[in-house]
Every structure is written in C-alpha cells, then in structure tokens.
Amino acid sequence: MKRSKRGLGWLLALLIAVGGTLVFLRSAPTASALFRRPDPQEMLGPADTVQPLTDSVGTYPVPAPTGTAGTVDGQALLDAFLSSRSYQLLGPCVTEGKKAEQSLRISLLDPALLGEGLNAELAALLRERVEAAEKAEEIYENGTFRAELLQEVFHAALAARLQTPENYLRVHDLSLSLSYSSGMWQLNNAQELADAALGAFGQAAQADELAASLYDAATADLPYMPLHYRIEENALAGPTPNPDCFGVTDDPAVITELLQRPEAQALIGGQELVWNAELELFPNSPIRYYLDDSLLVLVWQEVEARGVGTFSEVFIQDGSQFRRLITSEHWEEWKTTTDFAQATNAVLASGADYFFLGRNCGIGVYQRELFHYVPTCDICYVTADGDMLFSYVATAPSEEEARRFVADNDVVFSLCFGPVLIDDGVDVTPDFYPWGEVNEEYARSAIGMLGRHHYLKM
Q1: What is the C-alpha end-to-end distance of the chain, expressed in Å?
Q2: Which long-range contacts (CB under 8 A, 24 or more apart) does 79-83 make?
Q3: How do residues 117-152 score in pLDDT, each as one tens digit?
C-alpha cells in the first residue's frame, strides 16, 4: 500500500509551523470553567480565635494612635491600651455571591472601667501614708493634701491597675462588610473598623487627657485624714505647737469659719459645742484659738455670775494629749502655770492645787500606779483614752478596790479634788464639801468632759 505524498506534506507543514515540536492539542474549556473566586475567610483569618490586635484584622490594616503621649501616666495608658487590645471573628464569614459579612468583636482598654473605684483605692493609699507620717507637713499643705503626694499615690494606683489591663476591657461588636471587585475582597467599612480599633485613643495626646481626667476623678472629694498623734506616757513634753496655728480675734465670724475647716470637723466629730457666736462675751475681750490636725482650743470670756467667766473648750485627737505634771515636792521649787506650759509645749494649761506626797488627801494615781491612798475627797480618774471617771468620798473604794479599778479601767493618773458637780449630765453638787467653797462666792475653776475627747475648762 502506498502512502500519500500529500498526507506527508501536511504533516511536515504542521511540524514546521510549530517550530519542529510535536504537540497534541485538545479542545479549549469554557470561560466559566477557568474562574474561581477566593474565599474571604482566607483574607480575614480563622474564626472564633482571640488574636492580638496589632496593625491589622487578617489582611485588613487598622491604624495606631498618631503622635506621642506627653506625660508618664498618659504613656502608661497608651502602652497598656496597645498591648491589651484584641479581636475575635465571631463565626464563619457569610458569603452571598460577591458580597460577604463577618461578625467581629474588638476588646479595648476602657478608661471608664479603669477609673471605677480608683477614688477609694487612692484614699486607702493615702491613709497608709498618713498613718506612717510623723509630721503634718509631709501630708498637708494649707489644709489640703500636698499636690506632689496626690500625684505620687495616683501614679502608684494607676500603675498597679495597668499591670492587669485585662480586668478593664470593654468589647465592641461590629459587622465587617466586604464586596468582591478587581479580583479581591474589598472592605467597605474600613473607617468603622479603624474607629472601633482606636476607641478613645485616636491620638496619643488623648491618653494625656484621659490620664488627667482619671486623676481629677480619683482625687475629688477625698476624706480628710488627720495624722494620729500619741504622746508617750513617760514623755515630759509634747510636740512643739505650730505658731501659725494660734490666733486671736474679736469677731465670732472668724471662729465660725475656723470650725468649718476639715481638721476642725474631724476633731469635733459631729459633737455640739458650748461655744456659739451668740454668747454674751465680756466687753472688749479677745477670742483666742488654736487649731491643727490634733488639737482644737477655743478660749473666751463672758459675763458669768456678775463676774467674768473664762472658758476653754478643747477637742483632742488622742487621750495621751490630756496630761498631768507635778512640779516638785518642795515648796521653794514651785513654778507658775506659764512655766509648766512652756516646759511641756502645752497649748492650754491650767494650774491646780498644791500637792506633795505626804499630803493627807485623796487617792493618788500617777503613771498607772496607786501611790497614795487617803480617801478624804472626791477623785477624778483620767484613763489612757482621756475619759474622766469619778469616785466619791462618801462611797470611797477600799485600797484594793482602788488598785483593781485603776487596772481594769486603764487609769493613767488621778486628780484629787472636789466636789463633783455634774455626773453624766446630772447635777450632783453636795450641800457641803470640805473644799471648793460650794456655799460661797469665790473664784474657783472646774473641768468637765462633754463627749469623747471633748472638754470644757472654766
């Protein structure tokens, strides 16, 4: 059988047309068979997984705050915000043709949550500092907390909270809208995503403003916290009074204003004062006062029993401020009350009767020790807390009972005096008493306790 030359020539022509390479062709597929639209989940990332939100959600970028913070606390807020923000795709992406929707949850540091309870926390830190302080100047300036101290404790409180920013996160849910164009899935609401990812920190400078707002809220309406003073029982003198705390006026309105100061209110503790602006003061007599965070003293004179009554109303912070001092056992070494006051740094001092160990009078207690037992007068026992307790000559305790009474009631010293005039609000003035001139008009003095750490001397 002969082969056709024509057929061979066709084959050679085909070989020449394709450059000498033998190829085998099949029919071409349709256009729809070549196209495959990508899955948007590939651009978004895995669903239901919490991931740090740094610079993108999947392949979609998110901005960072612009600029820099200008304060230490502002920068600390910004750092905590950036390190703690995260996102989570809620469920798979829902695709319909060229459109897709993806539920998204973003977790951000919330300044409002961060500030909740910060005021109370600051107050607790301040109280610790107050309790550890030895001088008011370490805590207060012009009757308020020192600004440097407030900044210091606020910084400490804020820094402690920012150690666990996950405790102060708030979530923001949104839906990402995507559409397919130009060969890829485009994010339609990129601005909404950017706003949600920045929260309150669109610009770094806003972190400074937020820190300042937190400070203002945390330091507002802080309670007054007076330093607690206690004088050692064996101390011969107390702290030196602040000269700036003394004052003299002839205007009762000055005292009214003084009593509204926070340190005065802390000492008064809601008790009612004997002093009031309507008292009939002795003509041209001054009103003297002293106020610091441990002591309030008012001294005035008024018309009393056709004479002049000098009154001293006192509030102390601690019972140890109520002291007794014995000058000497020898007559020639007696000192004046002014001498006593200067030697002991007393703000207010009152002279008492003469005393010596051999005097045949009273139940004497000093430095918690019963050293003298001659129950011939009424006795006032002063406790470590500054309470005043009485025993009467008519019902005097035995020596053993007196020792037990001193121990059981934490008595520090006693005053041998009399008579008791008022006991627990009841007039108990006797018809007769060996001392005190109860039936005569005679210049005498008295001391009374009106409430806890509240005394009246006249």
Answers
A1: 155
A2: 79/162, 80/109, 80/162, 80/165, 81/108, 81/109, 81/165, 81/199, 81/201, 81/207, 83/165
A3: 999 999 999 999 988 887 777 888 877 899 999 999
